[in-house]
Amino acid sequence: MQSLNGKKALITGGSRGIGRATAIALAKEGVELGLIARSEESFEVVRNELTALGATFVTAVADVSKEDEVQQAIKEIEDQLGGIDILINNAGVGVRGSFQELSTDQWKKVLDTNVMGIVHVTKAALPGMIEKNKGDIINISSMSGLKGTVGSSAYSASKFAVVGLSESLMQEVRQHNIRVSVLTPSLVETDFTRGRDHEPNPEKFMQAEDLAEYMVSQLKLEQRTFIKSAAHWATNPF
Ligand SMILES: NC(=O)c1ccc[n+]([C@@H]2O[C@H](COP(=O)([O-])OP(=O)(O)OC[C@H]3O[C@@H](n4cnc5c(N)ncnc54)[C@H](OP(=O)(O)O)[C@@H]3O)[C@@H](O)[C@H]2O)c1
């Protein structure tokens, strides 16, 4: 197991849900953080929590689907933290509806955020990792990236793409000592799942903290191989 103390992590969608829980968990390990989200207000809670922990962190407002905003935000974060060792591509949006109900604009928004968002952020952060000959990238897919279900064609297509992108990238960058992992979690109780057609069942939904703890344990592993992790409960969450 390696210590994470002093490492620098960039988390997209770091203001709420899984990203926020991961920021807290990494801060407790002594990791310095750069957090990206679209709205300044959404950082308020995590900012107070990280300050209370005495963490070193910076926040940047950017929409991951917009390449120019991403480049600017990552430059600011790299300058302030002095580089990025760990990239967690977590920002994502969902959309529910049958294929016939979903408009092409809804498809584009999901693909631009969930797939092109990872492309934009990784393109901006990867050169620094290659230069240091070291890095960790964790991409958050979903169980919808392994199996399509009714009402999730656009989301599922985006999350399948994340798995494929991750598998290819790992093989391309392992020569630079960069480990790429992809997680395919089942339902997690966050704003993302609250208020949908099924309310979170606390006995069957994972908590964001469970996933954050899992990521910390993966990052501590010394092995530099591709990790394709399920990270879901064995039970059907419904
Ligand atoms: N919750 C689940 O059941 C579940 C299961 C499997 C996988 N996942 C995946 O896990 C990831 C996080 O989900 P979550 O449940 O934590 O969602 P969440 O609670 O809705 O939080 C999403 C985070 O991403 C940010 N974000 C959204 N769109 C963005 C964009 N275009 N650019 C920058 N930041 C953006 C949000 O902040 P702003 O709104 O301020 O931008 C927020 O910080 C997603 O990729 C999701 O697909 C979730």
Secondary structure layout plus pairing:
Layout: E1 8-12, H1 17-28, E2 32-37, H2 44-53, E3 57-61, H3 67-81, E4 86-89, H4 104-132, E5 135-140, H5 153-173, E6 178-183, E7 188-189, E8 206-207, H6 208-220, E9 227-229
Parallel strand pairs: 1-2, 1-4, 2-3, 4-5, 5-6, 6-9, 7-8
Helix pairs in contact: 1-2, 1-6, 3-4, 4-5
Bound molecules: NADP nicotinamide-adenine-dinucleotide phosphate.
Quick take:
The chain is an alpha/beta fold and 238 residues long. It has one domain (8-229): NAD(P)-binding Rossmann-like Domain (Rossmann fold, 3-Layer(aba) Sandwich), CATH 3.40.50.720.
Q: Briefly note the CATH topology name.
A: Rossmann fold
With strands numbered from the N-terminus, the spatial order across the biggest sheet is 3-2-1-4-5-6-9
What is the ordering of alpha helices and beta strands?
A: EHEHEHEHEHEEEHE
Count of runs of 4 or more consecutive helical residues: 6
Determine the structural class based on helices, strands and strand pairing.
Answer: alpha/beta
Task: State the low-pLDDT regions, or none.
Answer: 233-238
Tell me the overall shape: globular
Strand percentage lies at 15-25%
CATH superfamily placement:
NAD(P)-binding Rossmann-like Domain
- CATH architecture label: 3-Layer(aba) Sandwich
Tell me the radius of gyration: 17 Å
